[in-house]
Design goal:
The protein has helices spanning 40-55, 145-158, 169-182, and strands at 60-62, 72-78, 84-95, 104-110, 118-124, 126-132, 138-144, 193-196, 199-202. With 203 residues, the protein is an alpha+beta fold. A 5-stranded antiparallel β-sheet has the order 1-2-3-6-7. A two-stranded antiparallel ribbon has the order 4-5. The longest helix has 16 residues, at 40-55. It is globular and about 40 Å long.
Length: 203
């Protein structure tokens, strides 16, 4: 029986971990610039984003989360079939189910730009993203489960929306309270510096 080919695209390695930008910083709350130049500077950014995502133990990261005003995100996330899918998307176009095909999943969601805080956020259980990679080559990803949530979450970032914008005010206040209670565990330059069992590790 033939297997379905993986939709994963390899992620570049060798990047440098950068500090993660927090909610409240202006670049987190506005639509970013389209990627128009596919050069070594962009490829360095993507490598650094991948390194930062892994250092923070996240499943996705958008460029404004390292303070850069460009529509690009990276991800490494499982779908409902437990297939680990990786990729880079510049200038994403997100398509979501409509009508009878639209089913919402209300599951816990968090954000590396508000580390330590989680709350339920209802999103469609499927997502389809098209765009180009860091070399300008077309890419396409279809997600279910956590991958669908990730593709929506990261695309949102590039248009200035944090997931706290999608939850009721009471839940949003709870998010900020959770983050504040855990803030001592996340230095300003996290994850360049991480704290593990009160020990400080600098990268």
């Amino acid at each position: 029986m033939p297997t379905t080919p993986s939709q994963s695209r390899p992620l570049p390695s060798g990047g440098t971990v950068r500090p993660i930008t927090r909610w409240g910083t202006p670049v987190m709350h506005r639509e970013l610039a389209d990627v128009t130049v596919f050069d070594d500077e962009l490829r360095t950014l993507v490598r650094d984003m991948v390194a930062t995502m892994y250092a923070a133990k996240g499943v996705g990261l958008a460029a404004n989360q390292v303070g850069v005003d460009l529509k690009v995100f990276v991800f490494d996330c499982p779908d409902d079939d437990h297939e680990q899918v990786t990729g880079v998307v510049c200038n994403p176009v997100l398509q979501l189910p409509e009508g009878r095909d639209r089913h919402l999943e209300d599951d816990d969601e968090g954000c590396l730009s508000l580390p330590g805080a989680f709350t339920g956020c209802a999103r469609p259980d499927q997502a389809h993203v098209t765009g180009v990679d860091e070399n300008g080559e077309p890419v396409e990803f279809r997600g279910t489960g956590l991958l669908a949530r990730c593709l929506q979450h990261e695309t949102d970032h590039l248009f200035g929306t944090v997931f706290g914008d999608r939850v009721p005010e009471r839940a949003r206040k709870k998010l900020y309270k959770q983050h504040q209670e855990l803030a001592d565990g996340y230095p300003d330059d996290w994850p360049v510096t991480i704290i593990v069992d009160d020990a400080v590790i600098e990268r």
